[in-house]
Amino acid sequence: MSENNFEPRIIAFLCNWCTYTGADLAGTSRLQYPPNVRIIRLMCSGAVDPIYVLKADLAGADGILIGGCHPGDCHYQEGNYKERRRVVALKEILKGAGFDEDRIWIRWISASEGQRFAEAIREITTAMKEKGPNQTKSEWAV
Amino acid sequence: MRIRYPVENDDTLITLQGFLQKILSERIVDVLLVPMRTPSGTITPALVSDPEMLVHADPLAPVLPVNSATLAGQVSMSKPRPKVGAVLRSCEMRALVELVKFQQACLEDMVLISVDCAGTYGVPKYLKMAANSGISEENLWKNLFKTAIHDPEVGQEDLRQACKMCVQPVYDQAQIVIELLGSNFNEEIIITLPDDLGEKLGLNPVETGQREVVVEKLSKAHSTEREAEFASIRERMDGKENLTTIFAACIRCHNCMTVCPICYCKTCVFKSQVFEHEPMQYLVWTQQKGAYRMPADTMLFHLTRLNHMVLSCVGCGMCIEACPAELPVGTVFSVIGQQVQGVFNYLPGRNLDEKPPLVTFKADEWSEVGE
ω before B295 within 30° of 0 (cis)? Predict the structure, then answer.
């Protein structure tokens, strides 16, 4: 399934305080990472309603990243802890329903970890390239 | 205390009605929420304040038109409120426990009266059977209980799918438990109730032991049926195929959501403006895939509903009955529910003090997630 020229499209939901700022740092530091990611900034990873993730997945996104502050560092105290549970549940539901739960990623990346952000995007892009396109992309009757 | 309530005139139903009448006339509660037989012969939940009206009560009729947990919520959420005695089956009790956790019901002024269940028929099936003059109404429930007690492995083919797979036919945490599965119901009804109430009604405690054995055997037999059914559903969601295949015939009537006791939102997001898109948006989506199923977002609807309620799904199967396309909605939800609930070691309806997994968290869990 994996074609050499396949470029996965990754949707990233990043928290304003840590991971988005980390992505910003990666940019201002001129770090190189694959241009496959489309970033959506939210105030907190805890604000990522699973319905956003599902919508992206069913629309054909090849990878979905939720980025937040490290556990214990949430600027709203516990948003990332709650999101972690939601993602655990969501992945389990997707697996149970026969969808590919491994397209959903979660990464804790702080504002000072530009390097870690660039690495995460490289890792996800490589993994999704190997996996090939999300089959929902060609499913019109969903 | 556990008491023995003798059956009068060989009629278990009239005896049970008599017991409920005492609860009303002794002012234990202001009203009873109880299944009643309408003048047309159908069964519906109703509120009853007049003990005389309980001659129409029929908690034994083997049919569950709605999950009454929602109704118990309606009459309990705000003060002032009546003191309600809720006569419910196990699946309704468990749904009610979940609704309490979501602040959609309050048990403060409620007396829970649980009735052991030997399974129910779907409404059309029940009406057909009840209209069949060959089977008396009494025999309808008695046959089910006889099978449940003596031949649980044989089962009853025509029961609702959810009932055939039900592994929790009793709910023992209620204040009053009508223990039909442990009763020789032609002669007696065994009832567990608070000591003061038992004394007030002038009843003497008894020892009885066979119910636990019966319930265990019944649950085990149903568990076998359940695992077989689950396996066949899982096979159809193995990754090569997914939920889209099983739910392909969905007509998006949202009946499953309407009848679900756990889906409590006043306005579902799928009926809100969030899903009122601009016409040109549809063009974009259509051009992305070349064709676009309408109404849009059918799989998103089901996956979101799963995401919202599957951790609290009690498997009452109301959604199966409500689906005009006859999709195995409830069975699929039970399959996935079992799996997700297992991850959080959560069993809906088990304990009022257990928080639903998604409203709580621990700092030191799933540390591998996110690294």
Answer: yes
Report the b/e string of B50-66 with b at 16+ CB within 10 A: ebebbebbbbbbbbbbb
Between residues 262 and 291 of chain B, which touch chain A (CB distance below 8 Å)?
269, 285, 288-291
H-run or E-run covering A53? helix A50-59
Please say if the pLDDT value at position A71 is more than 60: yes
Q: Is residue B23 part of a domain?
A: yes
Please answer whether residues A51 and B328 qualify as being in contact, where contact means their C-beta atoms are separated by less than 8 angstroms.
no
- Give mean pLDDT, residues A5-16: 97
The length of chain B in residues reads 371
Same-domain pairing of B177 and B293: no
pLDDT 10s digits, A15-34:
999 999 999 999 999 999 99
CA distance B334 to B338: 6
Residue numbers of the domain that contains B170: 2-222
In angstroms, what separates the C-alpha of B367 from chain A's closest C-alpha?
9
Do the domain assignments include residue A71? Answer: yes
Task: DSSP letter for B57, please.
Answer: B
DSSP for B59-82 reads TTSSB-SS-THHHHHHTTSSSS--
Residue A105 lies in a domain: yes
CB contact under 8 A, B310 and A142: no
Give the CA dihedral A95, A97, A100, A106, nearest 10 degrees.
-50
**Residues from chain B contacting residue A19 (CB–CB below 8 Å):** none
10-residue averages of pLDDT along chain B (371 residues): 91 96 95 96 96 98 97 96 98 98 97 98 94 80 94 90 97 97 92 90 80 96 96 89 95 97 95 94 95 96 98 98 97 97 98 96 93 80
A window 28-57, beta carbon within 8 A of B:
50-51, 54-55
User: Which chain B residues touch A142 with a CB distance below 8 Å?
Assistant: 244, 293, 298-300
Domain presence at residue B312: yes
Q: Say yes or no: B83 and B206 in one domain.
A: yes
Q: How many CB atoms lie within 10 A of CB B231?
A: 10
Tokens of B363: 């700092």
A2 inside domain? no
Into how many domains does chain A fold?
A: 1
- Report d(CA B160, CA A121) in Å as an integer: 49
Q: Judge whether B365 lies within some domain.
A: no
CB atoms < 10 A from the CB of B219, how many?
16
**Structural domain includes residue B228:** no
Distance CA A39, CA A20 (A): 8
